[in-house]
Amino acid sequence: MTDINERDIAVFEAGIKLGALYHQFVGTPISSDTIDGLERIIEDSIALQPHIRSVSVSIDREMVEKKQNPKFKYCELEGRMLHVSLQILYKNIIAYAELAYDEIQDYPLMSIKKIEEM
Amino acid sequence: MTDINERDIAVFEAGIKLGALYHQFVGTPISSDTIDGLERIIEDSIALQPHIRSVSVSIDREMVEKKQNPKFKYCELEGRMLHVSLQILYKNIIAYAELAYDEIQDYPLMSIKKIEEM
Amino acid sequence: MTDINERDIAVFEAGIKLGALYHQFVGTPISSDTIDGLERIIEDSIALQPHIRSVSVSIDREMVEKKQNPKFKYCELEGRMLHVSLQILYKNIIAYAELAYDEIQDYPLMSIKKIEEM
Amino acid sequence: MTDINERDIAVFEAGIKLGALYHQFVGTPISSDTIDGLERIIEDSIALQPHIRSVSVSIDREMVEKKQNPKFKYCELEGRMLHVSLQILYKNIIAYAELAYDEIQDYPLMSIKKIEEM
Predict the structure, then answer these.
(1) In the CATH scheme, what architecture does the domain D6-117 have?
(2) Across the strands, what pairs with D116?
(3) Are B11 and C97 in contact (CB under 8 A)?
């Protein structure tokens, strides 16, 4: 096949970031009160990694509330609570990727949504 | 020996919290710009766990700056960058514990500092 | 109160180990086929830490099977799948601690079970 | 640009796996004695994830020995100790990716090496 190109690298980098944030932050103690702070620090931490153009994290408030232990009033961040949209910019290619809970497959699905030339 | 007492439980809980936060957050991408935010979210996350009376996290700014990759401008949170002081309150016992880098042993040392009755 | 004693340290170390292993390994991809291997490596990794006398990890096979995604045939290690028994030996004190899923509280409970003098 | 194609997905999946294993396992206590076991379980865990054709993990023995704390005889798995080669098979596309320590940049570099049609 053809050589590795800029599009390949942009898409590959997008995958790295989603895999990384998922396995870094899943397991973090969380409650309704810390959702905002955790969303921001995940965004800010991942934004440090190479070739990130933007990253937006939102954690499912309803799931957190449902999962909170009634006695201890907190739960742990789970993959299916995470909704992440990010853009990688590599050279002049933008790759858009997403992590979103897929209810039908009951799976936190990572996908590449769009690839653009700037 | 004597039965498990409240002092044992307070001290045990202190150990749990330090072990937990260390292995949850080590590896997080970090730069000088995200230190404050990461300190706060570690505190807020750990404060959710049972029997925490207070927790204070500070990350060694100098080490972060020294470790930042010159090209990519970030590094990863390491255990030796962490300074944590926390208090567990169990029944009327307060246990004070700490995580601090021990330079001589080159080891991120967790220790129990003081135990008080309220 | 009295000064920190050997019993305090043994119990504190037990807490550290349980907190550490929980937050290090939760999130690991797992299936029925990898349970044995994962149990062994968690034991072997935690046994490296100071003052461990023994550690035994078992992962709930039934829960793993129930949680395995039907399409992808794996799930992730969760805290409630873990049953851990460990012994800390500090000086001549042995502290016995446990992590076990508490069904009534729906919580992976860490507890100190027994403290002995050798 | 053109729509997302099979090549994009293969490359994206390769990135996910490398990011995931890195942030799941970095921080694990390790010594010369547990290297083999840890290599195998990282391979076996990641091989469970979708579209993996093969994965081979090797941990730098020399670095582990050098990093082992002289008193405690262990260290923690760091990203730069990891050498990983993996293949993703998506439809009839094979993507070859690698994680290897780049000494010049002092960085654990993930890269896509080759893309083939079966």
Answers:
(1) 2-Layer Sandwich (3.30)
(2) D94
(3) no
Question: B13's torsion region: left (phi>0), alpha (psi -120 to 50) or beta?
Answer: alpha
What is the residue-averaged pLDDT of chain B?
97
Report the DSSP beta bridge partners of residue C89: C94
Both tokens of C118, joined, read 């050798």
Alpha carbons D84 and D22: distance in angstroms, whole number = 10
Identity at C22, one-letter amino acid code: Y
Best A18, A23, A115 member to test D by mutation, with max D CBs in 10 Å, is A23
pLDDT for D33 equals 97
Please state whether the predicted TM-score (pTM) of the whole model is above 0.95: yes
User: Is residue D48 less than 8 Å (CB to CB) from chain A?
Assistant: no
Q: Helix count (H) and strand count (E) of chain D?
A: 3, 6
B46 bridge partner residues = none
Task: State the chains in contact with D (3 or more Cβ–Cβ pairs under 8 Å).
Answer: A, B, C
Write out residues 57-96 of C within 8 Å (CB-CB) of D.
72-74
Residues β-bridged to residue D17:
none
**Per-residue pLDDT tens for C94-104?**
999 999 999 99
Is the pLDDT confidence value at A4 over 80? yes
ipTM of predicted complex? 0.96
Using an 8 Å Cβ cutoff, are B68 and A83 in contact? no
Q: Phi-psi category of A51—alpha, beta or left, where left has phi over 0 and alpha has psi -120 to 50?
A: left
The share of chain B scoring above pLDDT 70, in percent, equals 99
Q: Does B110 touch chain D (CB under 8 A)?
A: no
Min distance B79 CA to chain D CA atoms (Å): 9
Q: What is the per-residue pLDDT across B60-101, written as a single tens digit (0 to 9) for each?
A: 999 999 999 999 999 999 999 999 999 999 999 999 999 999
Q: How far apart are CA A16 and CA A12, in angstroms?
A: 6
Give the residue from C21, C22, B46, B57 showing the smallest Cα distance to A30. Answer: B46
